[in-house]
Design goal:
about 130 residues; alpha+beta; about 45% helix
Length: about 130
């Protein structure tokens, strides 16, 4: 992977991904894919008092997709859901010390999957508020 310009941090997150797996009965779930490259990402979150207390991912894709998934879970764990919604595609790439231009779409998928999981969480909490 290094020959196409991956940083040491990308290689580390690809070979030692953090927070891999699923969370049973998550508070939020997001799933996104890219039909062009075939990558698929799922993010599961547990939330208490609007703080992301646990986060896991499953990714079917290339090394960049795995590295960006791993990084976005590290960035979001332990912070308020509204702060996590501010994590951008470029934030993920910057934390990985850059991605080759042709792999930038992978950082898009990671932040998009996180945002979908948070939207799912917020939708559920709003529904619970209506049912009280």
């Amino acid at each position: 992977m290094a020959q196409i310009g991956y940083s040491e941090k990308v290689l580390d997150h690809f070979t030692n991904p953090r927070n891999v797996g699923i969370i049973e009965a998550p508070d939020g779930y997001g799933k996104v894919g890219n039909p062009v490259c075939g990558d698929l990402m799922e993010i599961f979150i547990k939330v208490k008092d609007d703080i992301i207390t646990d986060i896991k991912f499953r990714t079917f894709g290339c090394g960049s997709a795995i590295a960006t998934s791993s990084m976005v879970t590290e960035m979001a764990k332990g912070i308020h859901v509204d702060e996590a919604l501010k994590i951008t595609r470029n934030d993920v790439a910057d934390e990985l010390e850059g991605l080759p231009p042709k792999k930038m779409h992978c950082s898009n998928l990671a932040s998009d999957a996180l945002h979908e999981a948070i939207k799912d969480y917020k939708g559920k909490t709003e529904d619970q508020g209506k049912n009280k």
